[in-house]
Design brief:
Structural class of chain A: alpha/beta
Shape of chain A: elongated
Oligomer: homodimer
Radius of gyration of chain A: 20 Å
Largest sheet of chain A: 7 strands, mixed
DNA sequence: GATTGTGAATAGATTCACAGCT
DNA sequence: AGCTGTGAATCTATTCACAATC
C-alpha cells in the first residue's frame, strides 16, 4: 500500500516550472487550499474530487487536472488525503517559507491590510509600513510603526523584501512601484487604479475595486 | 462626413445581451474607460487603438475587437473620439445611472470602501453601512451613520438596493449574503475569503486578498 | 465499485492578416 | 496613407470519456 506525503512526480512529464503555469490555475490551487483547510477544521481526513466540487461549487475534473499537473496527489478508487494534500499545496504556493513584504501607504486600505495580514497565520511577514504624510509617520498600526517613505528603499534592500503592496493614490503608484523594483522587490500587489509599467521579471497583480464594481454594474444593465 | 456620438449598431449581428459577454471583456472595457478618462484629463481628443495600446500596455487588436462587439465606435483611417467613446463606455458599463449600494461590515475594509466610494465621482451610491457590533453602530464614517445589521433587509428593500458589498468575517458572509439576496440585491461584491452559494440570477464577484498574495507567492517559488 | 489521472474533443479567448472606409 | 472592423487561424482552457489503479 502506497504511503501519503511522499512527493511523487508525474510518470514522464517534467514538473512544470512556475512560469508556464497560468495564473488561473494558481488561483484555483489557492482556492483548493482554502477548502482543504476548512475540511481539516471539521476533522475530515479524506475527500474525493467529486465531494470537493459539490461542496464548494467547483469542477471535479478541473480539480483533478489541476492537481495532476504537479504530481500524483491522490489514490485511485479512494480520493485525496486532506492533511497531506493541504501540506503539498502550501509548499507549491510558496507558503513553506515567509515572504518579507512591505506595505506602501498607510491610508484606509493600507491600514486594513496591515491589520489583516498582521493578525492571521498568513505567511507574509510585514516588515515595513510606509507613508509620505508626516501626520501618519510614527503612528502605530497593527504593531507596526509607520515609517517615512524615504526609508522604503533601504528597508526593502536590508530585509530582502520580495513583495511590495501598493496602497497609495493613483498618482503616486508608478513612482513607488519603481522604487520598490529598484530596491529589489520581485512582486507587486497594486491597489491603485492604474496600469503599472514594469520590467518583465517583476510580477504585478492589480486589485481594482472600481473595476470590480463596474463589472457588476455592466451585468445589472 | 459621419458624426460622432450617434449609437451605430453593428452591421448585421445583434447587440450582445449582457449575459453573453464574458467578464474578461467587461473588465477590459472598464480598463479602457480608465484610460480614456486619463486622456481626457490631458486634453487629448482623438486616439487610435495603436496609441492606446502602447501607452497603457494593452493589445491594439483586442481593443478594436472588444469595442466592435458593441457597435462601430471609431472612424476608419482616423481613430476614436475620446469624449464620445468615453461616454458610450460609461453607458455600456451601466454608469449612466446610480446603483444603490450597501456595505455590510464597518471594519477596516468596509470603512476603506465607504470612504473611497463616498468620495470620488463613483456612480455607486452608498445608501447604507451596516455592522453587527453595537460598539460601531451609530459611529459616523464618510458621512454615513453605521446602522445595526437587523435593519439591513428593510433598507435594501426600501432603497431598491442592487449591489451588496460584503466586508464581514468569513463566518458571517454566507448569512449576510442570503439576507441581501432575499431582500432583493442582484449583485454581491464579496471580500470575505469564502465561496458564496447563490441562486444563478445573482452575480457574485469575490475579491480575495490572500488568494492574490498566494498567486504572487507561487511565482516567487 | 469507486476514483484518480489523462488523451481526445470541445469551447473559449487572442492574435493575425487583410478587406473596407475616410 | 492610415486606421477600423472582422473572418480565419492560432493559442489556451475546460470538459468528456475512459483506461489505470486501488
Amino acid at each position: 500500500m502506497r504511503q501519503w506525503g511522499l512527493p511523487q512526480p508525474p510518470a514522464d512529464s517534467p514538473m512544470p516550472s512556475s512560469s508556464d503555469v497560468s495564473p488561473l490555475t494558481v488561483n484555483r490551487l489557492s482556492v483548493y487550499l482554502r477548502c482543504l483547510r476548512r475540511l481539516g477544521e471539521e476533522g475530515i481526513e479524506r475527500v474525493s474530487s467529486q465531494q470537493l466540487a459539490q461542496r464548494f461549487q467547483l469542477s471535479a475534473t478541473q480539480i483533478r487536472k489541476d492537481l495532476a499537473r504537479f504530481g500524483e496527489f491522490g489514490i485511485r478508487g479512494v480520493g485525496y488525503d486532506v492533511p497531506s494534500l493541504r501540506a503539498r499545496l502550501e509548499v507549491l504556493l510558496g507558503l513553506g517559507r515567509l515572504h518579507p513584504t512591505v506595505i506602501v501607504g498607510a491610508g484606509n486600505i493600507g491600514t486594513a491590510l496591515a491589520r489583516f495580514l498582521g493578525a492571521g497565520g498568513a505567511r507574509f511577514a510585514i516588515v515595513g509600513l510606509f507613508d509620505k504624510d508626516p501626520e501618519r509617520v510614527g503612528q502605530e498600526i497593527a504593531g507596526l510603526r509607520v515609517r517615512p517613505s524615504h526609508e522604503l528603499a533601504a528597508v526593502v534592500r536590508r530585509e530582502q523584501v520580495e513583495i511590495g503592496i501598493l496602497a497609495v493614490p493613483a498618482a503616486a503608484a508608478q513612482e513607488n512601484c519603481d522604487a520598490l523594483v529598484a530596491a529589489g522587490a520581485r512582486s507587486i500587489l497594486n491597489f491603485a487604479p492604474v496600469r503599472l509599467a514594469v520590467v518583465p521579471e517583476v510580477r504585478v497583480k492589480t486589485v481594482d475595486l472600481l473595476i470590480s464594481l463596474e463589472e457588476l454594474g455592466f451585468f445589472l444593465g
